[in-house]
Amino acid sequence: MRSRKSKDLLLETKNIVKRFPKVLANDNINIKLFKGEILSLLGENGAGKSTLMNILYGLYKPTSGTFLLEGEEVEFSSPKEAIRRGLGMVHQHFMLVETLTVTENIILGNEPGKADFIDYKRAREEVLVISERYNLSIDPDAKIETLSVGLQQKVEILKALYRKAKILILDEPTAVLTPHEVEKLFTVIRKLRDSGVSVIIITHKLEEVKAISDRVYILRRGEVVGERKTSKVTKKELANLMVGRDVVLTVHKEKKEITAEPIFSIKNISVKDAQGLMALKDISIDVRPGEIVGIAGVDGNGQSELSEAIMGLRSLEEGNILYGNEDIEHLSTRERRRRKISSVSADRQRYGLILPMQITENLVLGDHDEPPFSKGINLSLDTIHSYSEKLVEDFDVRTPGVDVTAGTLSGGNQQKVVLAREFSRDPKFLLVSQPTRGLDVGAIEYIHSQILKMRDKNSAILLISLELEEIFSLSDRILVLYEGEIVKELIPEETTDKEVGFFMTGGKAKE
């Protein structure tokens, strides 16, 4: 890394504190950003990373503390002020108008021209010049709704560069990208750095920090607990600083022979989406006891429809779903659960939990009217309470008690409640969708270990995940889903993430 001098100092925060009701989000944060530098902010969910960046970008006001931009003390009351001073931010959820073109989105709110006249031709030319300068090639006339996630992200970056950003903040920039798209994004970020733009990346991904940043600050519970040159720190050291304890980064999965007949089979099913379009086209999947089959794919290629069809929430147009030798297509979700089929949904807050209900109530959902949790029409409250306390201990749910509502828990602990409920039912077949979405390295380590325990108990597991590292770590076989079809089956030990990413984006193997 290049040596840094005080004259290269672009941005500095001094003792930034941000308090919310009952939460100290930032506690005396001091960081520095230099010109032409890629800086990572690494930390668990709730560590205060995004809060700090939202203060810089004018979305929040600090409770106390200041920050300096090129030596001048500044405080922005809105993003518009931050943009005017050279800050740009690409949020995790893009801020684009889908029905407008690339150019229209980029110039929105900053249109060239006079009075009521927008000089669209000039704007389009500027967009082309900037996109060529930073290798962000894109069709300036394409509608946003026609673009892939990776291209939409390019538009967000171009929006910031069009406004002459000297500092670009990227919030979880690789969350929804394929490996190939990540590589292309990193190439763009390096090009930005080399041209003098400073980049701040908010992330909880260790690989990302090592691959792209010059320097990293590690945040834990609102405080900076370390600063490191990325080239001189290991992933293990970063993980330990993030979590505050030793973290096992490598999943130890025993190789085993899987010879039994499938306990769960999908046979040539086709399923329509909510708009009546075919979302799954003639797909077949077998899952055997003690086997984890991973479904890899870019989001929106039929994963949600597959999950809903398996659990009886979406009807089939064609095909069959077999559990053992029984065709279960006609069974309700409740009846499927009665047959030892469990499901961890992709959205824990919408479909996995009832947030205003207590942990005790969430842990027996679906089984609350069965012994031992009920006697006739009455709930056995003492039994439910003691059962819940045992699960909270077994699954390491961090909570002041089992009677608090699920909505008061962190994302990682909410996910542990869902896992505790579904895994404790000793399922023969287990559907697990996005089990670690939005979680940090400590929670991921724990959840992966629990999934492997279910495999060791001989559960048949279908794992749907957008995280390729997760698919590779846990799966015995990988099926690639593209535009509603299974386009490739691969063995993790015999392939690479780049090959899987190639098929995920519609690549065809050579004959």
Please tell me about this protein's structure.
The chain folds into three domains: 6-243, 3-Layer(aba) Sandwich (Rossmann fold); 254-340 and 427-440 and 448-511, 3-Layer(aba) Sandwich (Rossmann fold); 351-425, no CATH class. The two termini are 45 Å apart. It is globular. The chain has helices spanning 49-56, 79-84, 102-107, 120-133, 149-162, 179-194, 206-212, 235-243, 303-310, 333-338, 348-352, 359-363, 381-394, 411-423, 441-456, 468-474, 497-504; strands spanning 9-20, 23-29, 32-34, 38-43, 64-69, 72-74, 87-90, 167-171, 198-203, 215-220, 223-229, 264-272, 278-287, 292-296, 318-323, 326-327, 341-344, 374-375, 378-379, 429-433, 460-465, 477-482, 485-490. Strands 7-8-9-4-10-11 form a six-stranded mixed sheet, sandwiched between helices. The protein has 511 residues and is of the alpha/beta class. Helix 14 packs parallel to helix 15 (441-456). It has 17 helices and 23 strands.
Task: Draw up the topology in text.
Blueprint: E1 9-20, E2 23-29, E3 32-34, E4 38-43, H1 49-56, E5 64-69, E6 72-74, H2 79-84, E7 87-90, H3 102-107, H4 120-133, H5 149-162, E8 167-171, H6 179-194, E9 198-203, H7 206-212, E10 215-220, E11 223-229, H8 235-243, E12 264-272, E13 278-287, E14 292-296, H9 303-310, E15 318-323, E16 326-327, H10 333-338, E17 341-344, H11 348-352, H12 359-363, E18 374-375, E19 378-379, H13 381-394, H14 411-423, E20 429-433, H15 441-456, E21 460-465, H16 468-474, E22 477-482, E23 485-490, H17 497-504
